[in-house]
């Protein structure tokens, strides 16, 4: 581990998320078993923004799925606010690469529906959805259907669809992956703005190391699978509030990037070599 590495939060503070020595695997065709992640421990403090990077197929999504309660580890425990997770994680909001907008509902309906399902009156749900959509610059697009919105606009709707439910934990899996570079930069800026107004614990999976450093308080590096584990844990001590586009030009950013990339590169090469052999 590099010098910038940090250890878990002090033991007297209950983390928002604790992955305690978890193993996760999948049955393979023909009766085998693929051990995806092996002995992973990770604490995410309340209000902390943690980015997870690692070579393709190493198990980043698998870790998020376990934290969401969508996957049960073969061994180890997922603790949410100190309580072992059983079933779905109701404290978490999940944003995937592909958004979960319903094509037959307008932007406002897509955002309000989550509140309505929780018993909020329709008029109030719509009022709150309007406020949220206005916060992300979509007040003029309330009645548009998803196919009438740009990729970036749809992503903003998807983001507020999750945030309106006020989850304590935000799980984001390559959320800006399909967007063009400029839209992606604007989404990063928007995400940091919203997060700084109401700090949630965030686990953010990305392939983009620059994005990880620009956004996060800590960057976690996973090794190549099978049996992937955490091999690096770097604190990102860049000032906040940050402009995620501007901060990339600072010398401190360059130093952090270099330290993390040195570790990550080795794993990326390993994963490619395994792919070539496979
Ligand atoms: N349902 C499943 N059944 C069998 N194998 C699976 C399943 N889900 C994931 N895997 C395997 O587990 C490993 C980890 O997958 P995962 O999607 O978590 O990786 P990742 O790091 O998120 O990948 P990427 O960066 O490419 O999105 C991969 O080898 C994948 O093929």
TrEMBL record:
CDD domains: ABC_NrtD_SsuB_transporters. Keywords: ATP-binding, Nucleotide-binding, Transport. The keyword ATP-binding applies. The keyword Cell inner membrane does not apply. One of its GO terms (molecular function) is ATP hydrolysis activity. Residues 19-249 form the ABC transporter domain. Pfam families: ABC_tran (PF00005). Gene3D superfamilies: P-loop containing nucleotide triphosphate hydrolases. SMART domains: AAA (SM00382). Belongs to the ABC transporter superfamily. This is ABC transporter ATP-binding protein. It comes from Agaricicola taiwanensis.
